[in-house]
Design brief:
Layout lengths: L5 H10 L10 H8 L3 H8 L11 H5 L5 H16 L6 E3 L2 H8 L3 H16 L10 H10 L4 E6 L2 E7 L2 E2 L1 H8 L20 E7 L1 E4 L7 H16 L3 E10 L4 H7 L3 E5 L7 E6 L7 H5 L1 H10 L3
Parallel strand pairs: 5-7
Antiparallel strand pairs: 1-2, 2-3, 3-6, 4-5, 7-9, 8-9
Helix pairs in contact: 1-10, 2-3, 7-8, 10-13
Length: 297
């Protein structure tokens, strides 16, 4: 989860991968963008956003996509609009304090309530049970995000990493979310390949316009992992709602078949060697470079 603005996170992550010893100084970044060192500091502390007439330099000099710049701007504007605003934003320090009394647990529980309402009644093996999922969210900071419109949660994603034996069950189409627990997660402490499982990708009906911001927050998380040489061997999900199939196709995922025990639920996967050419790779030069190197054609 990012409490800093999307722009701050992307700028800091980009700077951490270039320059001497793999890290550019704020002074060099200021020279590159043609702004002051103080301005770069404010960008990275989420104090300010780059002037509109300078946004093109993010594309021309840093190699960002225009979609990324737009997502950063939308996130920033949503944060500035605050409680009365109509824009979308990602949950951050200010909104956590304003809407959830500064309690991360309250925000997580509210997000689970939204998922429960969107998915309807589910078998206990796949229901968003707070007793199971609250500890999972608390243990995977940086691997999930919540999107808001004003004070209302409208979308979220989560991506814990499965143990190899659970990945095997997933590919056999027999994995059940009820087996997820804090002690059955792989922690991305060391470089390597990890299997990401998405138990929660929620976009509330009528809020489809939040999708670019949600994808950008997911891309920023993958970029942060890649810079630590943590890459995904694959991303898997089990669809529990009919409308999700088209979304999976849009993301470039492949249908492995229906779940062996729950035939109404589809099992989908995006293999690591497809990430560079997926929507995530198209939105991020960092991901294209890392994943093309790890999974050469």
């Amino acid at each position: 989860m990012g409490f800093h603005s999307l722009f701050a996170r992307k700028l800091r992550a980009w700077r951490a991968t270039v320059g001497a010893h793999g890290r550019m100084t704020q002074e060099a970044m200021a020279d590159l963008l043609g702004v002051s060192v103080d301005a770069v500091g404010k960008y990275e502390r989420s104090v300010s956003f780059i002037r509109g007439d300078l946004e093109h330099r993010l594309v021309e000099r840093l190699g960002w996509s225009r979609a990324d710049v737009l997502a950063c701007r939308e996130d920033w504007e949503g944060r500035q609009q605050g409680q009365g605003g109509g824009g979308y934003s990602m949950l951050g320090h200010d909104s956590l304090e304003r809407f959830f009394d500064g309690s991360l647990r309250k925000a997580i529980q509210a997000g689970l309530t939204v998922a429960d309402a969107e998915f309807g009644e589910l078998p206990s093996d796949f229901a968003p049970d707070p007793d199971r999922f609250v500890p999972l969210y608390e243990a995977t900071t940086g691997q999930w995000a919540i999107a808001l419109k004003g004070d209302e949660i409208v979308a979220k994603w989560m991506l814990p990493f499965l143990l190899p034996e659970d990945e095997t069950l997933f590919r056999k189409r027999t994995f059940r979310e009820s087996s997820l627990s804090v002690d059955r997660l792989r922690r991305p402490i060391f470089p390597g390949q990890y299997f990401g499982y998405c138990p929660a990708l929620v976009v509330r009906s009528g809020h489809e316009a939040v999708a670019p911001l949600l994808v950008s927050s997911f891309v920023a998380s993958l970029e942060a992992l890649a810079r630590r040489d943590v890459v995904l061997s694959a991303i898997g999900t089990i669809l529990v709602s009919p409308g999700g199939a088209q979304l999976c196709r849009d993301l470039g995922m492949v249908h492995l078949g229906q779940h062996a025990q729950f035939e109404a639920f589809g099992v989908w996967v995006l293999e690591g060697n497809q990430i560079a050419s997926s929507i995530f790779g198209r939105k991020s030069a960092v991901l294209r470079r890392y994943y093309s190197a790890v999974f050469p054609a």
